[in-house]
Amino acid sequence: MLLSFALLLAAPRAADPARVVVVENTSSPASVEIAEDYVSKRSVKNLVKVECQDSATSTANETMTYANFQTAIEAPVLAFLSKHPKVDFIVLTKGVPIRLTDAPFGMANKQPSLDSALAATGYAERKDVVKVVLSDSAFSGKCWVNRFWNSTERFSHEKFGGYLVTRLDGYTTEEAKMLVTYAVESEKSRPTGKFFIDVAEGHGIGDVKQVPQNPVADGKLDLHVINEMAYNDWDADMVVAGQRLAAKGVPLQVDRTDVFVGRMGDLMGYCSWGSNDPKFDAKAYSLIRFAPGGIAETAVSTSARTFLPTQGGQSLIADLVHGRATGVKGYCDEPLLQAVASPSILFERYASGWTLAESYYAASRFVGWEDIVIGDPLCAPYSK
Questions:
Q1: How many whole angstroms separate alpha carbon 165 and alpha carbon 184?
Q2: Closest CA to 292 of 356, 359, 212
Q3: What's the Cα-to-Cα distance from 132 to each of 63, 101, 102, rounded to whole Å?
Q4: Pairing between β-strand 220-221 and β-strand 216-217 as defined by DSSP bridges
Q5: How many Å is the Cα radius of gyration of the chain?
Q6: 148, 211, 273, 365 - which has most CB atoms within 10 Å?
């Protein structure tokens, strides 16, 4: 279904810095530096200072207990938000932990990302939200259907509840700060870089008429979506993403061979199976480069398991940040494929002028889950 351009392009207060609050961990020099850099570049006045373990110093510190989160982070953030009802976006910084344990939701019913826990603020108290148990083989957990999923109306906390939470993070403090530099740079002129979509043709292509697959249909949970999405369904979504971008006339390349394509530059959008691609080439992946404002998504289960240098395991979105991506989405633990962002929604909204945060969250089915969105929430290079 074609979306109304009036709905897609209506942008009330889109770049208003008053819509943003930044969370700074005073125990982390990296967090302090990144927060100060962001408020300066974006003229943001809303700043909440918290004190907790410094996740920039060790992988052990990237995980914190839910009880500590409630006291050290959630309580001061909610206290601020109660006095600032016009805030829609929460920006976390490197140095703030990425995942929680012993929570009442998330993978294994206890382990969500800290970011998605904040995004679900207020969901547990609402009567108009849909609770869901995602389950596939050995993986299961509780979360909520995102009320902003596939919306054709721009986000506000007042209308949709919850918050759009993004994070400024990467392997280094400097890379986290560059996310904002690229975002600001991308808004100075119309982007000319291309979108690249790497379909894994070997999976086969699902029914493009069913794209995007909705977690709720006719008021009921669609178990075809809630229970693990088939691989070829996400490939179908990538195919539709290409069709929608082609209709918008933006530079585009869709690869439907069995080759994993990397070693490219000047990208405004990128999606692939990452290390889950049968022909994955780690070297080629490490050489993907982005234009200012470029965003990405990969169907990789633990692509945001750490933002510190590591060896082995699945491909990391931190490598794409290192490749100058301005925004990217990943997962701190197994999300199941249905939680990975819909490329057709993500790229269409972004290329229509929506902000980075709105584009990622409109494309994401769940909150209170494993999701981590990297980038400046206000970034909108295609905004008119």
A1: 19
A2: 356
A3: 24, 19, 18
A4: antiparallel
A5: 19
A6: 365
C-alpha distances in angstroms, 110 versus 63, 66, 97, 104?
12, 9, 16, 5
- Mean pLDDT of successive 10-residue segments in the chain (384 residues)? 44 75 98 98 98 98 98 98 97 98 96 98 95 88 97 97 98 98 96 96 91 88 81 96 97 94 95 96 96 98 97 96 98 96 98 98 98 98 92
Q: How many C-beta neighbours within 10 Å does residue 205 have?
A: 17
* Residue 168 · residue 30 · CB < 8 Å: no
Q: What is the DSSP string of 145-191?
A: E-TTTT-SS---HHHH-S-EEEEE--SSHHHHHHHHHHHHHHTSS--
Beta-sheet pairing, 131-136 with 139-145: antiparallel
Cβ atoms 325, 295 nearer than 8 A: yes
Enter the pTM of the model: 0.96
DSSP code, position 111: B
Geometric angle at alpha carbon 113, from 344 and 143, rounded to 5°: 70
Kindly give the pairing relationship between strand 89-93 and strand 47-50. Answer: unpaired
Non-local CB neighbours of 312 within 8 Å, separated by 6+ positions: none
Rounded Cα–Cα distance for residues 186 and 129 (Å): 36
222: left (phi > 0), else alpha (psi -120 to 50), else beta?
Answer: beta
How many whole angstroms separate alpha carbon 132 and alpha carbon 198?
31
Contact 315, 303 (CB under 8 A): yes
* CA distances in angstroms from 245 to 16, 71, 107, 214, listed in the order given: 27, 44, 33, 21
Residue 272 Cα to chain centre, angstroms? 15
Domain ranges of the chain: 5-9+17-168, 191-354
Name the residue among 372, 366, 374 with its Cα closest to residue 229.
366
